[in-house]
Design brief:
Shape: flat
Number of helices: 0
Radius of gyration: 17 Å
Order of helices and strands: EEEEEEEEEEEE
Distance between the termini: 47 Å
CATH superfamily: Mu homology domain, subdomain B
Strand content: over 45%
Helix content: under 10%
Number of domains: 1
Structural class: mainly beta
CATH architecture: Sandwich
Number of strands: 12
């Protein structure tokens, strides 16, 4: 069985009415969607919530980013790594990153290095190191733990708040 190694990156943008940003690398197709929660009244008069594509965002709005990947090729793909920056002017929401079957790590140095949250530190205002906080994260990385078989689909997600 022939396999490909793919390292994929997406840039999250708010705009284009939250429309999905699609990117293809090798035989993996990525789609990135930005959504926010909205309240609505259903047909029985009950208040409910739903996620809708982002058209505009105001400071304090929490945006959920979902990255969907699909193996569109005829062969399995191994070693898939999805790297996504936390968008500019946004703060990562602690513990919001998710992705079934993946190892999730974070960067506080612009995507140069990655580690688990408890291993990350940043300089404080006096040049000393302190444990990194969620708002210090600049990038998120998902390393898939299994191969993506032809036709398979999966997703990764995280939330961030507009500053």
């Amino acid at each position: 069985m022939k396999t490909l190694t793919a390292s994929l990156s997406l840039i999250c943008l708010i705009g284009a009415a939250g429309a999905g940003l699609a990117q293809e690398q090798g035989s993996i197709l990525l789609q990135n969607v930005a959504e926010k929660e909205e309240l609505f009244i259903d047909s029985s008069g009950v208040e409910r919530t739903r996620f809708v594509p982002v058209a505009t965002a105001l400071p304090g709005d929490e945006i959920m980013y979902t990255i969907t990947f699909t193996n569109i090729g005829p062969e399995a793909v191994e070693n898939i790594v999805i790297t996504n920056p936390v968008p500019e002017h946004m703060s990562y929401v602690d513990r919001s990153a998710a992705g079934d079957g993946s190892d999730i790590s974070f960067s506080v140095d612009g995507g140069i290095s990655y580690a688990s949250p408890q291993e990350l530190s940043v300089a404080d205002g006096e040049g000393n190191q302190r444990p990194a906080q969620a708002e210090d994260y600049t990038h998120i990385r998902w390393q898939l733990l299994s191969d993506a078989e032809p036709g398979s689909t999966g997703s990764a997600q995280f939330s961030a708040v507009l500053q």
